[in-house]
Automatic annotation (TrEMBL):
Name of the protein in its database record: E3 UFM1-protein ligase 1
Single GO MF annotation: ligase activity
Compositional bias per record (Low complexity), positions renumbered to this chain: 465-474
Biased composition (Basic residues): 487-496
Domain (E3 UFM1-protein ligase-like C-terminal): residue spans on this chain: 720-833
Family: Belongs to the UFL1 family.
Domain E3 UFM1-protein ligase 1-like: 586-715
Biased segments, Polar residues type: 418-427
Gene Ontology biological process terms in this record: protein K69-linked ufmylation; regulation of proteasomal ubiquitin-dependent protein catabolic process; response to endoplasmic reticulum stress
Keywords: Ligase, Transferase, Ubl conjugation pathway
Length: 841
């Protein structure tokens, strides 16, 4: 059996591959088909294609039409004729048969449309409706190129399912929009106290809606308002009667007690309660329950929209603030909102949504997400959404709190390093306690470290002094403007000066400090009211007659939360800055130890020139400029940083914050910024830098240190020998490595003074000749002549350079070159003059 099948397959393949010797033309095929139809061998209908080269059966044509409808949902007959290649007459005939056989299809205006297409269109309309709140049917019909009647017939069965909306008067509305307009109609109708034509009321509501929605909103037809109004009247939400469809006569839902007194009724409340048990007695008025429902709806809308409302603008004019407060307490939405902290009742008649007062960012976004959208989808940064309030003003608490971040964390202008640092007389010890640096470890307790006043002479210090400031060892002496420098050893012992802890002198003083800290002026009631007014500038425009009086309770509500937030940030900032303050204090103490020991060492060499007044002035000024100025700069800059850190200001840490050059005006400015009496000491210290005596600076820096609690190391014999040895060793290495003939001279002179007098001399260029002259009696004639000749040649070289271009590198005259060559040749001799002596010693 298998062999027979294989043989048949081979024969079939051979027949397929064999070429026919007879070919039929298109005309022969047509005639053949006609002959077969005449012989009734083909007993079914055949349709010609427009090309004339193909036949298609009606069944196949219907199948292709159905396939095209399923693919596109909506297709025109003309497009079907082009797609199938069949004449329009046959396509239209077969399309009618397809539509008649399938109830889910419709043939309208030459188009076949399926229910699935309308389902998809309905879903798109619903998405757009939820964004825009309202859509005109005429607009939808124009976009779909169909009639409005067809749109209505298609959307009506899909309302409530695929389309979440309400169709009214040629407009499509969302349920939220319908509820919103219904609330407006209900509130407006309940606010009418006299007969009124409803047409005028609908016109007012149309203007109000257009103002709220802007140009993107669709004008609401009066029939829509009328339909909602009729439903409210029928449901009993509005009391009154309508005549001729437009004349509205409201039922009076309240009566004053005075009116009943005039009628001779002595107990109006009992009288009204017996006849109207559903009514509610207020302060001066008896109100019907419908009035409470009206106000409750308006208040609920304000709370949900994150806005505020004045109930007196909703209630009739005869209501007093006491009546408004009482009726608000009866509103279920107010009771629920107060219980859940979603609203605040202020000034008897005002209700503020907590969204406006304080709301989390995710809740604010939720209000945007739930808001009916216009054509452009709003975000959290949009200025207005359909809720009717500015999203940007959400959360008064956060907006005010953000501004606090830009303020000094201390909340008030502290005087600097210690709060309340004015000196207070100590009755027990009889001396003044001065302001000083704060101990970072005890900073949260507001303890202030101060230097206890020490008595002169041999008297013992009174009281026990404590503190955390320790004298750091002098690791290196900063180089001055002269090329010489010193380095102090790390084994130097710590000084004996210990600062004292300044304790509050009385309980009342501590209470004043705490009160000032807990009651910053920038969070006062007046300041908060002004800030709220700036955040919501439209309060007066929206009917608030006296915003300042109404906002006072709101300010008092916000103030504890803002104060608590400020205190937490202040505590966090102080905690973070405590370690920084300690590092600043330790770094300052280390630099002060090094600088003050060095200037004491250099000061001893000045005694050798007291007989030459002009030279002494030069040396004193030079020492003030090179050694005293860095000390003052370090004190002022580090104390300024310490003060900022203490006040909670973030400061970038730096190893050498005072490295930038400062002018005298800069120093005076920093000195004035230091708190209390310490500022006066600082200004005096800065002024000594312009003086002519180092002794004045030394006295000023001692007074400053005593006032601030810093320690100063006294240069004793042991420290002096250690520093001098280090200074001599450093100079020796500098002289040995020096290659510039001019720079060599001052270093050699300084080293000679160490070798001859045992003094560390810091001399400017103008005083070198005098310094050399004073060595005449201490050196042999050959050594002195070598030194004097070298100094004379150096002065000549500098004079030539100064008379030329002023740049030593650019001077190439013969005289300059010869002088330079002479000096270079003399350098080994000059170096041997000191290095030989140094090596021998």
């Amino acid at each position: 059996m298998d062999e027979e099948l294989l043989e048949l397959q081979r024969q079939f393949e051979f027949a397929q591959q064999a070429k026919s010797s007879i070919r039929l033309s298109d005309r022969n095929v047509v005639e053949l088909v006609q002959k077969l139809q005449e012989l009734q061998i083909i007993d079914f209908d055949l349709l010609h294609t427009t090309s004339g080269k193909e036949y298609i059966t009606p069944e196949q044509l219907r199948s292709e039409i159905v396939s095209e409808i399923n693919k596109r949902g909506r297709v025109s007959l003309i497009d079907l004729a082009d797609t199938t290649g069949v004449d329009l007459y046959h396509v239209e005939k077969q399309s009618q048969r397809v539509v008649s056989d399938d109830s889910s299809l419709m043939l309208i205006n030459g188009e076949i449309i399926s229910n699935s297409y309308w389902d998809t269109v309905s879903e798109e309309i619903n998405e757009r409706l939820q964004e825009c709140s309202q859509i005109s049917l005429a607009e939808i019909a124009a976009q779909l190129q169909v009639g409005s009647e067809l749109i209505v017939s298609v959307l009506e069965p899909r309302l409530g399912t695929l389309v979440k909306g309400r169709l009214e008067g040629g407009q499509l509305y969302t349920p939220a929009y319908v509820a919103r307009v219904s609330a407006m109609v209900r509130g407006a109708a309940r606010g009418i106290a006299v007969p009124m034509n409803l047409s005028a009321l609908w016109s007012s509501l149309q203007v109000l809606l257009q103002d709220m929605d802007g140009f993107s909103g669709v004008a609401v037809e009066s029939s829509f308002f009328q339909s909602l109004f009729n439903g409210l009247v029928k449901g009993g939400e509005i009391l009154g009667s309508v005549r001729a469809g437009v004349h509205w006569t409201p039922s009076n839902s309240f009566i004053s007690y005075d009116a009943l007194h005039k009628l001779g009724i002595p107990q109006p409340i009992q009288f009204l309660q017996s006849r109207y048990p559903e009514g509610k007695p207020l302060a001066t008025i008896f109100a019907h329950g419908s009035l409470i429902e009206m106000l409750d709806a308006a208040v609920e809308d304000a709370i949900e929209s994150g806005s505020w409302i004045d109930s007196l603008t909703i209630l009739p004019a005869s209501f007093t603030p006491q009546d408004a407060s009482k009726i608000l307490s009866l509103c279920p939405s107010v009771q629920k909102a107060l219980k859940s902290s979603k609203a605040q009742l202020l000034g008897e008649s005002y209700v503020f949504s907590d969204v406006l007062v304080k709301v989390a960012p995710e809740d604010a976004q939720d209000y945007v997400d739930r808001a009916p959208r216009n054509t452009s989808a709003p975000t959290i940064n949009d200025v207005r959404v359909v809720w009717g309030f500015d999203v940007s003003r959400l959360n008064l608490f956060d907006n005010i709190e953000k501004e606090l971040e830009n303020l000094n964390v201390s909340g008030f202008n502290t005087a600097g390093l210690s709060e309340g640092s004015h000196p207070t007389k100590n009755a027990t010890h009889g001396h003044d306690d001065s302001s000083s640096l704060a101990d970072p470890d005890e900073y949260d307790n507001q303890n202030v470290i101060s230097k206890s006043a020490s008595e002169k002479g041999s008297k013992k210090k009174k009281g026990k002094a404590t503190g955390n400031a320790k004298a750091g060892s002098a690791e290196s002496v900063p180089e001055s403007q002269e090329p010489t420098g010193t380095k102090s050893k790390k084994k130097i012992k710590k000084g004996k000066v210990i600062p004292a802890v300044q304790v509050s002198d009385s309980k009342s003083g501590g209470k004043r400090d705490n009160a000032r800290m807990d009651d910053p002026g920038f969070l006062s009631e007046e300041s908060l009211i002004q800030k709220i007014m700036s955040l919501i500038p439209d309060l007066e425009e929206q009917g608030m007659e006296d915003p300042e009086i109404v906002l006072a309770p709101l300010a008092n509500y916000l103030r504890p939360m803002l104060l608590n937030s400020w205190m937490e940030r202040r505590k966090a900032a102080f905690t973070e800055n405590a370690q920084k303050m300690k590092r600043v204090f330790d770094n300052l103490q280390r630099k002060l130890d090094e600088g003050f020991l060095n200037i004491q060492l250099y000061e001893k060499a000045l005694d050798l020139f007291e007989d030459d007044q002009s030279t002494a002035v030069l040396l004193h000024k030079h020492l003030l400029r090179t050694a005293a100025t860095p000390i003052v700069d370090a004190l002022l800059v580090n104390l300024d940083i310490h003060n900022k850190l203490r006040n909670g200001i973030q400061v970038e840490e730096s190893q050498n914050p005072e490295s930038a050059s400062m002018s005298s005006a800069d120093r005076i400015s920093l000195a004035k910024g230091i708190p209390g009496p310490l500022s006066v000491k600082a200004i005096g210290l800065v002024e000594t830098l312009e003086g002519k005596r180092v002794e004045s600076f030394m006295n000023a820096v001692r007074e400053f240190a005593e006032e601030s609690g810093l320690m100063l190391k006294k240069l004793d014999k042991k420290l002096e020998r250690t520093l001098l040895h280090s200074y001599r060793k450093d100079l020796t290495s500098q002289v040995s490595a020096e290659t510039d003939p001019v720079s060599l001279l001052p270093k050699v002179v300084s080293l000679l003074y160490v070798q001859v007098h045992g003094k560390a001399l810091q001399a400017p260029g103008r005083a070198i000749s005098v310094a050399i002259a004073k060595l005449k009696d201490k050196l042999d004639d050959i050594a002195f002549k070598t030194l004097a000749d070298y100094q004379s040649a150096a002065v000549t070289l500098l004079s030539l350079i100064s008379a030329g271009t002023g740049n030593e590198e650019d001077c190439t005259s013969d005289r300059i070159l010869s002088k330079r060559k002479l000096l270079k040749g003399s350098m080994p001799v000059l170096k041997s003059l000191v290095l030989g002596s140094s090596s021998q010693s």
